[in-house]
Amino acid sequence: MTQQTFKTEGAKITAYLDGPRWEGVPAATVGGFSCTSVDAGVEVLAQALAYIRASGPRRVLGPMERDTWHSYRAVTQSDDSPAFLLEPAAQSLVLEVLQATGFTEISSYFSARVPLAQTAQTPPPATEDFTIEAWNGKNPEGLFEQVFTLSTQAFAKNAFYKPITHEAFMAMYMPIVPLLKQELIFFARRPDQSLAGFLFGTPNYAEGPNPTSAILKTYASLSKGAGQHLAYAFHTAAKKAGYTSAIHALIHDDNLSALRSASEEADIFRRYGLFGLKLDD
Predict the structure, then answer these.
(1) Its domain of life (predicted)?
(2) CATH topology assigned to domain 115-272
(3) How far apart are the first and last CA of the chain?
(4) Which of 8, 72, 126, 221 is 20 to 30 Å apart from 251, CA to CA?
(5) Closest listed residue to residue 133, CA positions, set 56, 209, 186
C-alpha cells in the first residue's frame, strides 16, 4: 500500500508514500487535508506522519495529492476575491496546522489579474523558428497526446517533478475537454511541424456560464521565445473574444512566467506555498 487515509472527528488527511523528490531525496506527501479546528488537524496530521515515518520516508511535502500533476499548494495570502476555476481552495486552518507541526514554506507561487485592455500592446520579435497557431477544435485525444509528450520534456527539470504514465495523464485531462475553448488554446510549431510549445487557456467558469475573465492556466515550451509568443496570442484572442480580464494562474515566483506577468503590470491577488518537513531519524 502506497497511500492511506486517516480520519478523526473533525479532520481528514491522506498520506502518499511515493511522492516526488525533494533536494534529491524521495519524499512522501500529505493531501486531501481538511479540518474543523487546529487541534483536530494536528491530531490527524500526527497520525499521517507516524505512518510515513514507520514506512521509511524522512521527508514530507504538503499539501500535495501524490505529485505536482495533481492538486498541491496552500493559499498563504489573499485579497479574498472568489476562487477561480481549478484554483486550490483557501483553508486557513490547514495552513495553521502545517505551521504548528513544523512544516516550513519551501516553494512559493502567485496568481495575478490584469485588464486585457492593457495587454498585448507590443508584438514579440518576429521569428522563423516557429509559428503560432490556435487549436482547430478537432481530435482532442490527439491534442493531449502531443501535450503529454512535450510536458514530460518541458517540466522534467522542475523542482518536485515526478514522471507520470501516459494512461494516468490522459485519465486526468480528457474529462476537462468539455471546458476547453479552441480560441484560447495555442501551439508553437517548428517548420517541420514538430511541437515547440503549447498554451492552455480557459474561461473562468467559476464566475458562471458567461465569465468575463479568461485564465492563462498552463504553458510550456522547448524553444526560446515561444512562451512570449504564446502569451501574446492568448491575450490578443481573449480580448477579441470579449473577455475583460486575464488571470495568470499559479505561477512559481522564480519562473520566467513571473517576469512576463509583471511586464503586463498584472496585480497579484493570491499567493500560495508548498510546505516541507524533514523528519528526525
Answers:
(1) Bacteria
(2) Aminopeptidase (3.40.630)
(3) 22
(4) 126
(5) 186
pLDDT value of position 281: 60
**CA torsion angle for 87, 224, 170, 276 (degrees, to 10)?**
-50
Helix (H, G, I), strand (E, B) or coil at 231: helix
> pLDDT tens digits, residue range 226-235?
999 999 999 9
pLDDT tens per residue across span 12-63:
999 999 999 999 999 999 999 999 999 999 999 999 999 999 999 999 999 9
Least Cα distance to 274 among 92, 89, 73 occurs for 73
pLDDT of residue 107: 97
pLDDT digits (tens, 9 = 90+) for 98-112: 999 999 999 999 999
The CA distances from residue 277 to 51, 221, 237, 270, in Å, are: 14, 32, 43, 23
Position 263: which residue type?
Answer: S
The residue assigned the cell 504553458 is 219
CATH class of 3-109+273-278: alpha beta
| 249-275 burial code (b ≥16 CB/10 A, e <16) | bbbbeeeebbebbeebebebbbbbbbb
Report yes or no: 208 and 89 within 8 Å, Cβ to Cβ. no
The residue written with cell numbers 505529485 in the block is 67
Q: Of 11-15, 163-167, 237-241, give the lowest mean pLDDT range.
A: 163-167
CA 127 to chain centre: 29
Phi and psi of 219, rounded to 5°? -145, 155
Domain ranges for the chain: 3-109+273-278, 115-272
Q: What is the pLDDT of residue 157?
A: 84
Distance of CA 41 to the CA centre of its chain: 25
